[in-house]
Amino acid sequence: MFRLLLILLLIPTPLMALDGSGVEAFDFPSRWGTVTFEHLKHQRRIGDCMVCHHLGVEMGGCGNCHGVIQKLPQTKDVLHKICIACHWKKRGPTECSGCHDPERLDESVYND
Ligand code: HEC
Ligand code: HEC
Ligand code: HEC
Ligand code: HEC
Questions:
Q1: CA-proximal residue: ligand 3, atom 40 (nearest)
Q2: H-helix or E-strand spanning residue 81
Q3: Cβ–ligand 4 contact at 23 (below 6 Å)
Q4: Which ligand 1 atom minimizes the distance to the CA of 63?
Q5: What is the 1 CA–ligand 3 centroid distance (Å)?
Q6: Which of 10, 14, 87, 89 could form a disulfide with 23 if both were Cys (CB 3.0 to 4.6 A apart)?
Q7: Could you tell me the pTM of the whole model?
């Protein structure tokens, strides 16, 4: 049972919010430990979608442009920038383990 739960947790499935206004939560896989981003909670606490979806929600995920269009900064870098900058201001987590699940850290990072 525990294993099944673990497998389910490892599948990066965005769950659509019931009101259709976005996505409940995302799992971003990372060797530093998966980052679970509570999208719906952030929508509620921030209110303005444009804070993150800076060219509009209808443009889709960040990865539609970042990491695709040359010269634009990579998704990882823009996410780090936008997530951590606000956390410093509004007292969200700023240490690695505040976002990256330390239980799921891949040992290979020690060789970086
Ligand atoms: C704190 C930042 C933040 C706020 C505020 C925010 N979002 Fe998002 N949203 C994200 C991130 C990050 C993703 C994941 C994008 C990706 O995987 O490339 C996302 C993804 C989405 C997606 C799925 C896009 C896709 O095609 O994969 C929708 C729809 C969405 N958000 C709607 C909204 C709406 C509507 C609001 C405002 C009510 C909102 N978001 C507010 C950060 C935010
Ligand atoms: C339709 C394309 C597109 C989408 C989708 C998009 N971006 Fe961008 N992003 C850009 C462009 C173009 C720039 C550079 C010009 C500017 O700042 O507007 C940029 C710049 C940025 C910057 C500033 C980078 C720097 O180092 O100055 C951040 C932060 C950022 N994007 C975050 C995000 C996040 C987070 C998402 C998803 C929630 C997202 N972007 C979705 C096109 C996009
Ligand atoms: C505009 C502000 C803002 C942005 C952008 C933002 N956050 Fe947050 N975040 C917050 C606030 C405020 C809290 C709650 C602090 C508290 O009350 O403990 C929070 C809390 C969190 C938490 C703790 C769990 C929770 O949701 O309560 C995690 C993890 C987190 N954020 C991840 C992220 C990630 C990943 C991103 C970027 C995709 C991001 N945040 C972008 C403001 C923001
Ligand atoms: C506010 C939340 C947050 C904090 C704090 C944070 N990260 Fe991240 N990190 C993310 C998110 C979200 C992604 C996923 C971006 C993607 O999917 O492209 C990420 C991706 C990464 C990646 C790229 C993916 C990979 O594993 O190769 C590295 C490396 C990384 N983070 C290292 C760190 C380190 C080291 C720290 C501490 C100094 C840190 N992060 C702190 C949210 C955070």
A1: 83
A2: helix 75-90
A3: no
A4: 18
A5: 30
A6: 14
A7: 0.91
